[in-house]
Amino acid sequence: MLDKRYITENPELVQENCNIRGVKADVGRFVQLDSERKTLMQQVEELSRQANEVSKSIGKAKDNDEREARKEEGRKLREEKDELQKQIDRISAEADAIHRAMPNLTHADSPRGGEDASREIRRGDLEVRQPSFPVLDHVELGEQHDLIDFEGGSHVAGQGFYYLRNEAVLLELALQRYAIDILMKEGFTPTITPDLARGDVLQGVGFIPRGPETQIYSIENFDLNLVATAEITLGGLYAGKVLDEEDLPIKLCGISHCYRTEAGAAGRASRGLYRVHQFTKVEMFAFTTPEQSEDTLNMFCDLECEIFNGLGLPFRVLDIATGDLGGPAYRKFDLEAWMPGRGDHGEFGEVTSTSNCTDYQSRRLNIRYRKKGEKGTNFVHTLNGTAVAISRAIIAILENCQQPDGSILIPEALRPYVGKDRIGSSSDEDDE
Prior knowledge:
Blueprint: H1 4-9, H2 11-20, H3 27-57, H4 64-101, E1 119-123, H5 138-144, E2 148-149, H6 150-157, E3 163-164, H7 167-185, E4 189-192, E5 196-197, H8 199-205, E6 218-219, E7 224-226, H9 230-235, E8 242-244, E9 250-259, E10 278-288, H10 293-310, E11 315-319, E12 331-339, E13 347-356, H11 360-365, E14 368-370, E15 377-379, E16 381-389, H12 390-400, E17 408-409, H13 415-418, E18 422-423, H14 426-431
Helix pairs in contact: 3-4, 7-12
């Protein structure tokens, strides 16, 4: 969340930021409520002071009538204070709801506008090339080579679930290890995170754990939710902690399953593995000082590019426009891989993203750092980035690496992990 003092001192700027990001938040109302709350708190403090004085004076009363009168006076003061406290609680609840709805501030270079205003800033090493033969999409390729079982997944768990089979399993495991190996060389600590998190952790990171707008699966009768990303479990790891500045940046990479309801996500663009209810992801996360966070965001983006260049896949990077930024993000880059089987003639599809959330999440989670020799503490900056979302990476690999004979080449970087260089062969096609 934003610093309350900054909001009250810059209400016009904060309201404008909400407007350009398409968020409905009444900043003026928040400022008014905050002022009312402070005034009422002063009154409560004064009533408490008066009630204490009256309480101390009871023992000095000359007679029983005076003693009872002072007790009555004290009782009325406490009742008045309690009534004001109820008003404060109501005002605070309304103000807090507005406060939590406010998005992060926005980087000056982020494009202004809706999704279409996002700006391409980078391309991968490999150019997009139209194949000289009719391409199949990943669903057709998966069926042809017995790689993905959507019918079985639907039978067991419902639409949006699936089984990976045969070489697709090897690809999933290979992608995890490939990404982890790259990140470990850059000083990331590898972790396997819980697949569940408490509601306060989700809210702190910026997700809505329950209610009509949630995309989260919740566990009935428990304050637990299936995580949509390891950003949640990695971000919550140091909630309520004070870190030492000399330990920053702390760089973690987490492997987790990700669960999303994906309500209302049906459509051709969501076909197959592109938008599913469960997938595996390797997530990057960092806790930094404010001075380190912008360089860390660029490093995360560079690492995502290194991973997909290493896979030999064409891609582009977008600087995401204000109207398409999530609430916690100060700036966000999306990496979109070319998917030849998507749309009529191929399309780019998002496969990773990375965001600088500055101190937005750390304020909600109360994660601070202390400078050596100083008594005070400051909020850390948090950053997240997808190293590889396995299901979407598999789409890009299957569709880009398919050959005229129907086989699929394994990217060279994955061959040591998979143990083979091709899925299927021309002889397999002849047998068919």
